[in-house]
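Service request form, structural biology core

Requester: graduate student, group of Dr. S.
Request type: structure prediction, single chain
Budget code: on file
Notes: please return the result as structure tokens.

Sequence provided:
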Amino acid sequence: MNNKHIYRILASLVLVLSVGALRAQDDSNRGCPGIDAGPDTVVNCINTSVTLKASVFATSRTVTQYSVKEIPCTPPYPYTSGDPIFVGQDDVWSTAISLPFGFCFFGTTYNTVYAGANGVITFTAPTSTNCPYAFSTTIPNTGFPILNAVFGVYQDIHPGIGGQQYMHSGVLGEWPCRMYVISWNQVPLYQCTSLTGNTYQIVLYEGTNIIDVYVGQRSVCSTFNGGNGLIGIMNANGTQAVTPPNRNTGQWTAQEEAWRFQAIGDSLVNVTWYNGNTIEDSAEIANNQYTITVEPDSTQMYTVRMRYFSATNEFFDLSDVVTVRKDTLAEVELSVRENPICEGEQFSITAEVEGEPAKYTWSYDETERHPNVAYAPDSAGTDTISVQVLFQNGCQKTTDIVLTTNPVKDTSFNASICDGGSYHFGDEDIRVGGIYTDSLKTHLGCDSVVTVRLGINTSTQSTDVVNACSSYIWRDSVEYTQSTFEPTYVLTNANGCDSIIHLHLTIDGLIKAQLKAPEMVTLDERLVRLSDISVGEIKSRRWFLPDGSQSYDSLAYFVYPANRDSVDVKLIVSNKFNCYDTAKVTIPMRKEAIYVPNAFSPDVQGNERFMVKGFNVAKYEIVIYDRAGDIVYHSDNINEAWDGTKNGRICNKGTYMYKIYYSFDHDSNNIITKKGTVFLFR
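Core staff response, request fulfilled:
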């Protein structure tokens, strides 16, 4: 696609087309109105005509109902594009953000939008500066805390922490493809502030009223606000809403996904093809594209024009240009290495072409299909060689060349002698192998040549280099059990000479498989570390682990099954000579454990106290803190429980932190620390 032009000319004809008959203008998934004339193309001697296909993107004139579909996660701008907002602020709304274009949302056109710090925008002016964070119901819902909104991803994030810049907002791009873009980049979750990767972007497109939501990552803080998150859109009274599958209110995670919300209905589009200033009347709709078939006599540029009214009654007059090139190039010239040439000599004929050749046919050998061919005439004389070249554009060209071959006299034969012997050729005795010639010249400049190829047959020597694990039976049928470099074996080679073979044998298979593993494990420490401490030069190893997996590293890990009393581990090692050894070990389980609940309620019978339970616990101490860091409870007796009070006074509903220090009977001096939170319900 090239040579974009914009025409401000009103359409004289309006075609009503289903949105389903239109496709995106390119593969970037941008939601702007547009037209694509397709790639430049070529016509030639075979294909004299071509069908041009224009793809159009436009949307419904009525924005009351929406569809949602998944699109590639390729945001139009980085998550840090636009102006920074909400530095050091949490749970707030922005002031009104003006849009330079009208945006139709559930049948109403808006020119302002309000950005919220919790992954949401609304078209209704908020009644306070506080952006709600708590919600538990799915949409649609008339009582939902935020209405007339785009949620993406709506959840309790914390852009006010750490003084960093997490949010950006702005109108980006140029007409006819301006976008309002708001992004949340690497934002921590409230309470679960270590979950910092929450990244998403909402895009509102000019002209099409399309809404895109891009999610780089969404994490879940299951201990706060139910871990709820939401992607979707909802109207001003909460009676209509659209959400992607499995993205309504709930605990779900996401990574590298994107969703497009688009109005369902008909659009008002007019498409016209032009050749220069002339309108092509043959435009048709076929396979969801606007097509015309053209047959140019020379290279031509064709323009396709799209005129479109959006749901906000904005008029777009857009166009694109495609070039159709006429290709008739077909030129051939033949050349040779030398001319005249001597009989029996092979030489090269080259076809030099201009154009894109598809097939070569040579007169002397029709099986040849290459631009460079080797030609060796059988006898002296004059030959005419021609080549026919068929070009990819369907054009065809035939060219001749006349060749004169002069006669030669060439005699050759082979001979061989043994080491120390001689061969008489011409006027000398030859003792060194090689090619020897005696030459004359004919009156035409060609050789009259006698050639002898003399070979010297000699004895040969070679060495069998062998590495073995324990013993080796050589070609002499002897079994060797120690390294040696002395044995030899004599054969007769193909020329009747001795072929002496030496044996270089290395016996080196001494390896010992050994592994290091814990003597036992407990329920609280089920991650098992294994070490390869084998003896010898280890080339490779393979661990066979209880969970059915295998490892090939010197260190291996697995999680001990809690329902087993013992497991077996096997290690197989090998050296560079493919010698193997195996080691096995059985690891028992000492079943000890500690259990800490995550919530309780003094008002609910059966769950009115927070109590830690343990098995085979030797030492124990617990300290509970409120969110201000003050101690509300302390005990060194595992059989005691916290009743939700501090010094006899009732504690407030909320999350409390604890630290537990404990050891088990088999190793009472090994103090283990456990941290966590418990939620107190009222």
